[in-house]
Each structure stands twice: as structure tokens, then as C-alpha cells.
Amino acid sequence: MTKPIRVLVVDDSTLVRKILSEILSQEPDIEVVGTAQDPFVARDRIKELNPDVLTLDVEMPRMDGLTFLQNLMRLRPMPVVMVSSLTERGAEVTLRALELGAVDFVRKPGRDLAHALEAYGAELVEKVRMAAAVRVRPLTARSSPPQASAVGSVLPKPKAPSGWASNRVLAIGASTGGTEAIKEVLLGLPPDAPGVVIGQHIPPGFSAAFAERMNRLTGLVVKEAAEGDRVMPGHVYIAPGDRHLLLVRDGGRYSCRLTQGELVNRHRPSVDVLFRSVAQSAGKNACVALLTGMGADGAQGLKELRDLGVYTIAQDEATSVVWGMPGEAVKRGAAVEVVPIGGVADALLRGSVAKRML
């Protein structure tokens, strides 16, 4: 029999520790081996219990979650799932936690905590299972779910676009580990790069903070996409949480369209939806990359793009936090090129001027 995933729950709230422990303990393949109310107790419990995964509160007494996480990832790297409040401060701190090495995060609702956290049980369980399989590197080495719908429920199957458009466009899709992967790609793009549209699996309330963070850190103008935004060179448009982002043709140029739509591959925003809209509106004027992420969202869209002659890129396994989405794309023959994350920006720029698919 496969050994259960051993989890240590760290949170200053007795109620949250109790609820998280109960949710996780219901799963036969997960064992909650202990809890801790602050980082100092957690440090001792880690030494004593040697857990496989940590769930970690962002704000705790005696030592904040970020300081503890930074020390942990430097001295004893292990998979960490953050439990974060849905506030502007909570979103910013969570993004910083992902930068420091946390694998993923779940939201901590502010009201009716017991009922709300129980509703997020499937998400929590899924992310703990995924975290247990992640390869965690030391910090110094770092550069029940909704029913799935098919992408056709939002957009029909693409055909080569008709008409004329002068501008090139780049598209990026990602999920688990994607916030840091996207940052590395954007840092590698020049200020006059083609306009970029991004689908990153992220909850409402976090996408705006992510866009603002990228805007501060990169030489590009980065924003959360809004309905009707004109896609311009040197600008990046990130899909809002809980909205599909579509690229649409607007005369000879491109613009952003947002739609609620159905969940696709259990996600909204969905990378498959974004990629299909790019296929419909831009075709060979696009260059597209699929980065780290759990599941298969984006693999079908990347294959449809390659079939149209678009230059397509997948992140390699060695640099992916989870080689689910790009790995599935490679398996389907969807990627013209498979590159480490440090080479994706250059590949996008090369692909955006390629005359034909290699």
C-alpha cells in the first residue's frame, strides 16, 4: 500500500486548525500528523514528525508566515500550501510566499469560517495531494471540484483567422507555480515586446495584486485585463480571477474580451479558452507558451494552435513546479519547442517573427 501523505497544519486559530485537520483526515491517503499554533512550535513539530506537506497561515504571532517560510525553504525545503485571507494585504503576502517557494495556496474566507472552509475542502485536498508530488528546491536554487466543461462551451473550434492584422501578439498559460514562471518570462521581454495576454489559474481578488506586482517588477506595463482593453506592444493583460479572457480582432488590431462563461477544465479563467481565442483572432500572428501547472488545461488549445501553424512552446519538466499542463501538451505533440523557463522569453520573441512553423 502507498504510504499516506503526512500533513502538519500550522495556524494560530484553533478553529481553523480543527477544520483543516478534519477535512484532510477524511481522506484515506492523507494523515494529519500534527498541528502547530505558531512557527516556533511548527519548527519543533517538523523535526519531530517529518511531515510531507505543510499548510501554513500567512499571519501568525511571534513570527509571521513569510519569515518562517523563507527560513524553512532555505534550511529544510518542503512542500507548503499557504492558507491566505482574501484581502489586498493577504493577496500581496501570498504572492510573496509563492515567490519564496510555497507550492500553492487556498483562500481563508473571512465570514462563517466553518461552513466556508468546508466548502473549500475539495480544493484543499487536491492541492495537498499535488504538493506532495512536487519537487521542492532550496530557496537559494530558485531563479468536490466543479464539473469540467469542454472549451467548446465557451468558444467553437477555431479556424484560421480571416482579414488583416498588423500586430504580433504573445499568449501565455500557466497554473501551479505559474506566478513565478510568468515573472521570469516577463523579466526577459523587452519594453517593446508584442502585446501579451495571460491566463493564470488564480482566484478573484488575487489577479489584480499579481498584475500590480508584475507591473512594479518588470519593464512592461502590466494590468489586470478589462473589457475592451486594446492590446498594445509593451503591455501585458492578465485574466481576472473568475473571468475567461479572450483575444478578439478589432479591425486590424486586437482587444480583450471578458466573459463569465462555464468553467472549462474546472477553471475560470481557462487557458484552453484563451488559446482558442488566440487561434481564432490572431493565428500565425501569435506565439504561445504553456508553462508549469497541474492538470491538462491549455494542452488542447496549444495543439489547436500548432495545427494552424502557430509557433508553440512548452516549459520543460526540469524547471516546472508541476509538469502537468506542459507535459500533456508535449505528449499530444502540441509544442514546436520545449525549453527551460529561462529560455521561454527568447523563444517567444523568436517565434513571434518566425515565418513558418519549424
TrEMBL record:
Enzyme superclass (EC): hydrolase
Post-translational changes noted in the entry: Phosphorylated by CheA. Phosphorylation of the N-terminal regulatory domain activates the methylesterase activity.
HAMAP family: CheB_chemtxs (MF_00099)
Similarity field: Belongs to the CheB family.
Gene Ontology cellular-component terms listed: cytoplasm
Catalytic site positions: S175, H201, D297
GO MF term (any one): phosphorelay response regulator activity
Domain remarks in the Swiss-Prot or TrEMBL record: Contains a C-terminal catalytic domain, and an N-terminal region which modulates catalytic activity.
Start and end residues of each Response regulatory domain: 6-123
UniProt keyword terms in alphabetical order: Chemotaxis, Cytoplasm, Hydrolase, Phosphoprotein
Gene responsible for this protein: cheB
Catalytic activity: [protein]-L-glutamate 5-O-methyl ester + H2O = L-glutamyl-[protein] + methanol + H(+); L-glutaminyl-[protein] + H2O = L-glutamyl-[protein] + NH4(+)
Natural source organism: Thiorhodococcus drewsii AZ1
Signal peptide: none
Name listed for the protein in its UniProt record: Protein-glutamate methylesterase/protein-glutamine glutaminase
